Amino acid sequence: MNTTTRTEIAAVSRRAFLQTSTITTGGLMLGIALPGLVTEAQAAGTLHTPNAWVHIADDNTITLLSARSEMGQGVYTSMPMLIAEELNVDIRKIKVAIAPPNVKLYGNALLGGPQLTGGSTSVRDGWEKLRIAGAQVREMLITAAADQWKVDRSTLRAENGMVLGAKGKKATYGSLAAAASKLPVPEKVALKDPKDFRIVGKRTKRLDTPAKVNGTAEFGIDVKLPGMVYASLEQCPVIGGSVKSFDATKAKAMPGVIDVVQIPDGVAIVADTWWHAKKAREGLTVVWDEGAGAALDDKSMLAGLRTGAPSDKLLPLKAVGDADAVIRNSAKVVRAEYTMPLLAHAPLEPMNFTAHFHDNKVDLIGPTQWQDAAQGVVAKTLGVKPEDVTLRTTFLGGGFGRRIDIDYIIQAAQISKAVNKPVKLLWTREDDMTHDFYRPQSVHTLAAGLGEDGKPTAMSFKMVSQSVTGRVFGLPLDAQDPLMTEAAIAAYEIPASKHEIVKHDAGLRVGYWRSVSHALNAFANESFIDELAAAAKQDPYAYRMSLLGSQPRFANVLKLAADQAGWGTPAASGRFRGIALMEGYDTYMAQVAEISMKDGVPVVHKVTVVADLGRMVNPDTVEAQIQSSIVFGLTAALYGEINLEKGRVQQTNYHQYQMLRMNEAPAIAITLVPSTEKPGGIGEPATALIGPAVANAVFAATGKRLRKLPMTQANIAAA
Predict the structure, then answer these.
(1) Helix or strand holding residue 144 (H, E)
(2) Which of 210, 191, 240, 181 has the alpha carbon at shortest distance from 51?
(3) What angle do CA 217, 685, 447 make, to 5 degrees?
(4) What does the alpha-carbon distance between residue 423 and residue 353 come to, in Å, rounded to a whole number?
(5) Low-confidence ranges of the chain (pLDDT < 70)
(6) Which of 466, 462, 410, 414 minimizes the C-alpha distance to 440?
(7) Is the pTM of this model over 0.85?
(8) What is the pLDDT of residue 8?
(9) In sequence order, what are the residues at sequence separation of 6 or more whose Cβ sits closer than 8 angstroms to the Cβ of residue 395?
(10) What whole-number percentage of the chain has pLDDT above 70?
(11) Is the N-terminal amide bond of 310 cis, ω within 30° of 0?
C-alpha cells in the first residue's frame, strides 16, 4: 500500500472504509439485499409478486420477505429458509427484505395478530405458513410454464429457480413470474416430507453476516436522508413527568442549532449534527412537574409487593386437591420467598428513529419490533391516515423486548412535524438506561409439605408482580395474564398443588424483557425444588427425576444434561455444580452450571445445555441463540439491578449496569435433541434457566441459599 492510499483511508470513517471495501470482496455480498433497499428491478417496474412473501423480477432476481425484525436472532435467514425450501431456490442466491406494516399479511398469529417480533414465536408462527407460501408460488410457476408450453403440469418440476420439462425444456422463474402473478393462488398445496428437506434443518451461514462485517448493514443509527437534521431530547428525570417551563436562550445560541421544540415527552434540540444537538441540550434549563413517580424507590416498591394494596387482583391459576390443608397437616414443611429486581434492557444501540413529516404524510425508518403499532399510533398522534404512514425497518442493534414499545418513534415523528424536516432522533446511553420500560420486580412465596420419603405431598405457589400485558394491550385487571404465568407450573408431579398470580401496580412503567415471566417463575420453582431436595437429604438431580414419571421429554433432557456434565462424578477441586429444568415456548431444556467461588461471588466456568425444541430450521442459529441467551441471563443473574431514588433511575451507563465481559463468559456445551415434534422457540428459554442453575451451584459450594438476585457479594453474604 502506498502513502497516498494510506492517507485516503485515514480520512474516512471505519464504516465508510468498510463500505468502500465491498467492491473488492467479490461474492461476499452476493444475494444480500439490505432491509428496505429498492432493487433495480423494483425501480424498473419489472417486479412480480405471486404472493406477499415472494417477489420475482424478470431477470430472475428473487426476493423473499421476512415479516419479523432482525435483532441478532437470525430471522433474516431462518424465515427465508422456510420459503426457499418449498420454492426450490438456492438460499444463497436470493435477496431478503423486511416486510412493511400489514397485519393482514404479516400478523403474528401466536401473539394474537399484531405484526410483532417477540415471545420466541418467529419460527413457531412461520413454520407452516411460510412453507405454504413457498409451495404456492412454486405451483403457480409450474402452472404458468404448463400453460405456456401447452403440456400437462404433472410432467414438470421446479428446481433451483427454474421450471424443468421433458427434453431439456426449461424456463427461469423470472421469465414465468409475470404470467404466474396473474393466476389464482392455490388454496391447497402439497408440502415436502421433512425427510426430503434440502435447506430446513441444515446448518446455514447467516445471510446478514457479510453486510454486518463489511459495514454496509443499515441499523437505525446509520440512516441518512437528504436534508435530514438531528434531534436530542431532554426528558424528565422522573419517568412520567412533564415540562412546566423551559429556557432555551443559551441552547439556541449554540453552534448548529436549528430549532428548539417542546413535545409531550420533553424539549428537543434540533441541529445540523447530533453532537451539536447533544451539546446544545446541555444548555437547556427545564422546570419539571415530576408527578407521582417522584415518590418511587425500588425498596418501597418491593415492600409494596409483599404487603399488597387494595387494588391488587389475586387470580387462581391452577389447583389440584387441597394443597393448603395437606401442607398445614404435614410433619415437615419447607417455606421460601424469592425476590427479583427491576432490570433494564440495555441494548447496545440506544433508542433512535428517523421520521419525515411532509405533505400530511409520514415516512418512518428505524429499528422496531412492532411495525403496525408504530404505523397506527404515529398516524393517530399526528392526525394522518394510517395508509399515509410508511415504515421501513432497519436491522436492530438489540431489542430484547424494549423495541416492542414505540415511545421513541412517536417522539421522532412529533419533532419532524414541528420542524417540517426529516429528523433523526437519537437517545444517549443515559437517556436509554433511565427511560426504559423495565422488567418488573416480583415476589414469589412457595411452600411444600414433605412425606416420609422426602417427596412433596403438596405445594403452593404465589407470584406477585406487575402485568406488562395490561399496560401494552389493555388486558383487564381481572383477566389472567399469560405472560405472567410462563413456567409458573413446573413439570414435577405433586399430588396436591395450588398456583396463584397476583397483579400489583407498583407505579413504574414496565415492559417485556427477554424470556418475560419465565425468568421470574423458573428462578423460584427451580430454586425451591432444590431446597426440597436438600431438606429431604437427596441428590438434586435424582430428586427431580423421581418427580418426572410421565414427563419423557423433561426426563430425557435432564438425564442427558446430567450425564454430559459429569453429574455424580467429582468436579475439579474447588468446582461445584447446580442443575435446573424448564419448558418454555414449547422447548424443553436442562442446564448444569459449574462454578467456583472467588471473593464471595460465583465464577461460572462451564454451562452444559440440552435442548429439545422439536424440528429446527437452522441448527447453527439455534446454538448461537442458546449461547446468547446464557450470556444475557447470566449477566442479569450476576449483576442486573435497577435502583430508583425519588423516582430517578440511579444506573446511567454500563459502568453502573454491568455487562458480562468476554473473559467472564463460560464454556458452553450444547446438545440439541433430534426431534420430529413441532418447533419450539429458542431465543429466550436459556435466559431464564441459567439463574437458578448458578444459584443452585452456589448452594452446593457455600450452603447458602440465594433467594434474591443479583448474586452480589452482599446478597450472598446475607443469604
Answers:
(1) helix 122-149
(2) 181
(3) 150
(4) 8
(5) 1-46
(6) 466
(7) yes
(8) 28
(9) 34, 35, 70, 71, 76, 208, 212, 217, 218, 219, 220, 367
(10) 94
(11) no
